[in-house]
Amino acid sequence: MNQSVEWLNSLPNDLAEAEFLKCCGSKRWAERMVAARPFSDVEQLLSQSDEIWWSLDADDWLAAFRAHPKIGGKKAAAAQSPEAQSWSAQEQSAMANASAQARRRLADLNEKYEEHFGFIFIVCATGKSPAEMLAILEGRLGNDRPTELRTAAEEQRKITRLRLAKLTQ
After folding, report:
1. Among this protein's residues, is 68 annotated catalytic?
2. How many structural domains comprise the chain?
3. How far apart, in whole angstroms, are the C-alpha atoms of residue 33 and residue 50?
């Protein structure tokens, strides 16, 4: 058994929930992750995370989205732990090198996206350039809301998995 998974399994429920909320802003997801313990290893942790995530409803997904800053932004709509803020900054680090034109375009498209879908643009930004994120955003603006909600939920799932891996390193 991985030492960090043992640590996560040993936490009192309230502290374990706080750790899970660093990875995903859905309270219901975090509560269910707490209840799913103990995990035998990281693979089981990730598998259980996916299963719980896809069992949730749109309101839970939207709650998770609100825990992220917009791409190119620093502050989320919902409160974030300092660790989650740091992870968001790392995940979006490529934006630090974006041109002023790319930042403006991204800000404009972020606003258009949020007006169209009613939630912020979510993408697993790790390893993506500003140009890649802009292209993804432009492409997803053509989706209908149900398709886009599911697409954003998949991106959130990827982000959660990356953060769980960081949590258990």
Report:
1. yes
2. 1
3. 10
The owner of tokens 């989205």 is 65
Task: Supply 123's token pair.
Answer: 């993408």
CATH at 159: 1.10.3330.10
Strand partners, 69: 76
Of 26-30, 70-74, 91-95, 153-157, the one with minimum mean pLDDT is 91-95
Whether the predicted model's global pTM rises above the 0.90 cut: no
Residue 20 CB partners (closer than 8 Å, separation 6+): 29, 30, 33, 34
Give the range of the structural domain holding residue 25, as residue numbers without chain letter. Answer: 3-167
State how far the alpha carbon of 112 is from the alpha carbons of 35, 67, 115, in Å.
39, 20, 5
Collect all residues with Cβ–Cβ distance below 8 Å to 145 and sequence separation of at least 6.
Answer: 117, 118
CB-based contact 92:72 (threshold 8 Å): yes
Q: How far is 135 from 129, CA to CA, in rounded Å?
A: 10
Structure tokens at 159: 């982000």
The active-site residue out of 5, 20, 42, 68 is 68
Structure tokens at 18: 């706080």
Q: Which two tokens stand for residue 89?
A: 């900054």
Q: Report DSSP state, residue 37.
A: P
